[in-house]
Amino acid sequence: MSLIDLVQEKIVKIPLVSTDKADVLRELVQILKDAGEIEDYDAVLRAICEREEKLSTGLESGIAVPHGKTEAVSTLKLALGIAPQGIDFASIDRKPSQLFFMLVAPPNQSGPHVEALAEIVKLVQSKAFCRAVTAAKDAHEVVELIKGE
Amino acid sequence: MSTPRKILVYVDGTEQSITAAQYAICMASYFKADLIALYVINTKAMEDLLKARIFLQDEQIEYEHDMEADAQRYLNYVNELAIKKGVSLIQRSSRGSVHKEIVNLVDEQNVDLLVIGELARIRSRRDELYDETERAMRMVSCSVLIAKDEDKVWQMYESLV
After folding, report:
1. What is the mean pLDDT of the segment spanning B124-130?
2. ipTM exceeding 0.95?
3. How far is A122 from chain B (nearest CA, A)?
4. Is B1 a domain residue?
């Protein structure tokens, strides 16, 4: 399972409406709920928040990769949120985060989980790509950018 | 033309890799070939995640333990599939970069055929998005078989006596 197989319009939201970290995590989990990808909203949110409490997954250059493991999912799930305005996510460089890749995996699929996270790291190394995604007008354009079509 | 004498199947816990294992068991049975199943604990990816500060040190250790457990669980599962069809399986797990570990084992064991699961259905033109299995497919010195169509492969496996 490649990251690209997880990318579809229903798990992309642009723009995110949240204005702070707690809300954006809820909004990202809600994307999965609305897309029919998860049933237990609370369990998924708890897994994501538990990891965030240890240290923010807000990286440099406006990227955040919240992630967690929970038995509430049976396969790897991705939600992608874009906040062109930027949201304070307590990132490493203290700059607002704009691109949120949230990954949730079951505990028995650590391999695919790690590989998907590694793919995200490679993907966001291209600043031009990140700029293009942040400037996308809708979910369809985001999916096309990621799939390179 | 000689038939494959040593077959390697790469197992990573995905459904596609289990389909590959079923196909490999069928081939090993048909050709009376030795069958090796390999699971790679991708420590390279975990190191990259630690460097990128996505992983914390204790998180990396936790995931590594999880992946060790996954390796044993999936290899045991493939072994059970093989035993049901009277095929003996050599279980191997290793740590490092997935494609390098596959390439190394192919060379070390003189593998004739590598069997892998279906690759991502939609491929990006972005070089950044190629996956480890695809890299292994390109780099190994032996022939590669990509198992597709879960249902057909399952039927083939089930019909094997």
Report:
1. 50
2. no
3. 6
4. no
